[in-house]
Amino acid sequence: MTRPKLLQIFGFISLSLLPFPSFITSPGEAAPFFSKDQNMEPSHYNAEGSPIFDSFDVDLLVKVLANTAFSPFFCFFIPVFFFFHGAKFTDQVFILSSAYFVFVSIFWFVRWCSKLYRNQHGLIFGPGPLDWSEQIVILTGGASGIGELLANTLAVRSVTVVVLDVKPIVTENYNITYYKCDVSKWEEVEAVSKRVIEEIGEPTILVNNAGVVQGKLIVDLSAEDVQQTFGVNTLSHFWILKAFLPSLLKKKSGHVVTVSSALGLTGVAQMTDYCASKAALVNLHESLRYELDKRYECPKIRTTLVCPGHVMTPMFQTVEFPRIPFFKFFCPSIQPVAIVKRIIAALDDQQSQTVFLPFYTNFIPLVGHLPSFLRDIVQWVSGADYAMRNFTKTSSRRPDEGPLPSGLHEKKV
């Protein structure tokens, strides 16, 4: 291949990346970090503006590439471009660009077939657009964080939202109804479910979002800590499904959203209870999918598993991360709005799927297959085993845990 031909290839691909600044958020949308020491930084943030490239990370790069260099539509025009610039069918540049187009097309075709099979051919003769005004959503943990934002966003779409939490949600939306309920206790969930069905109606969407983190070493965990973690993070999913899934089975349609965590796919120090409780949700989601498909014969009840990395919510405001640029680029923290957008997109698509955010979380399931020394290197680079060393529990505190230390508060997102 001649040098001018190579320059043409790189020039063509480079031109395709020029629009990428349009994806970058404007100053003020991305919140800067501030640090306590030189090596680690807390995860809380403020609302001040930040340089534009603070929002530049691997997720943005992947998004740009997915719509350009790795898009079948874009790749189709590469050999066409060279053909109209005088390349022959036998020229190496035309053959290589055509082969690249075929490779990218096969990759996307396989992904499409997987999605088609997972949704039981629903993508060909699937339902029409989701009528949001007809939906009744049961949302746990809706008083703060991701749940609060999701509840208010759905309410704007004229969705009837039922929030189950121990604390009331602060909202001005008339179509959000709050029921006080400790979702870790079956008796309360059972009683509230009867009231909801009688007063609001039978739900069509279940979003199990409630969560809590203790942030203690395993020996320091009290019996109450462990019971609260598994009660809120794991058992609540069983109780919500037991109480409300029959309504979905009756209609043979609906959607169940399970909010787990990337830490449900791996383990880190000082989060043994949290990781174990979230890992249980991954298997709960998979087992539920098979029960709906094979035993209940209700494949049109969709299931979505959400496995986010670090989300900047009050629950994790005192977590510390390495402040090196490498970490910020490859393992960025994400705002709750990113999770909410993906959940709403999954509901709107009416497809069963697994959501990994940000991009690096797609590779976490592979970490367990690495040689031990490589896995330890990954843990060391991420700083995961020391991220909780100065952690203070700021949300879902029990009366026996006392008030928050001075200087901290259970803030809103």
TrEMBL record:
UniProtKB keywords: Lipid metabolism, Membrane, NADP, Oxidoreductase, Signal, Transmembrane, Transmembrane helix
InterPro entries: NAD(P)-bd_dom_sf, Sc_DH/Rdtase_CS, SDR_fam
Region (Disordered) residue spans: 393-413
GO cellular component, one term: membrane
Location(s) in or outside the cell: Membrane
Protein's recorded name: Short-chain dehydrogenase/reductase 3
Residues spanning the membrane: 64-84, 93-110
